[in-house]
Specification:
With about 170 residues, the protein is α+β, with helices and mostly antiparallel strands. It has helices spanning about 15-20, 60-70, 85-90, 100-105; strands at about 25-30, 35-40, 40-45, 50-55, 70-75, 105-110, 115, 120-135, 155-165. A hairpin with a 5-residue loop joins strand 6 (about 105-110) and strand 7.
């Protein structure tokens, strides 16, 4: 007899825990400014026959304007020993200085100029393919609006994962 067990969606693949518990850094440059920010919301999968990452940035974040001007961004996952750097990058603005340096991280660049923290265990180099703003009127589950007490809805970016770098 074949049996199945119930498994929570977040336990199916390690990527759920990487995003939710380990967090990630979203980094981008517009050629003049480079910044990174901590994110704990995101998704990955297949869309339009491509491997994609979906990330969310609120418009008041300094990284938002930089990301808007760039075709690429990186998503980086760091080990637990960098938890303080992740907390710093989530609580502080790049408007106030170089967050890479201030957090103790090293800003590296790919051959095509995409920034990422050199200390990362894994980095996804992503090309933006689609962007749109989350809209209040589109919420079916109105309970989720509690995530937006001041109506500062994220912009969602769907990005093709063009390259994955894994530390040896």
């Amino acid at each position: 007899m074949i049996t199945f067990e119930h498994v929570a969606a977040k336990d199916v693949d390690a990527i759920f825990n990487r995003i939710d518990k380990q967090w990630m850094l979203i980094s981008a440059t517009d050629g003049e400014h480079t910044n990174t920010m901590t994110a704990s919301w995101g998704a990955m999968g297949i869309l339009w026959h491509k491997p994609v990452a979906i990330c969310f940035i609120r418009p008041q974040r300094y990284t938002y304007n930089i990301t808007e001007k760039s075709d690429y961004l990186s998503l980086a996952f760091l080990g637990e020993e960098y938890r303080d750097a992740l907390v710093f990058c989530g609580r502080n603005s790049g408007r106030d200085g170089d967050k890479f340096a201030q957090s103790g991280l090293t800003c590296a660049m790919t051959e095509n100029g995409v920034p990422f923290p050199l200390e990362a265990e894994m980095v996804m180099i992503c090309r933006k393919m689609y962007a749109d703003d989350i809209k209040k009127a589109s919420f079916i589950d109105k309970e989720m609006l509690k995530n937006y007490p001041i109506d500062d809805f994220h912009r969602v970016y769907i990005c093709e994962i063009e390259n994955v770098l894994v530390r040896k």
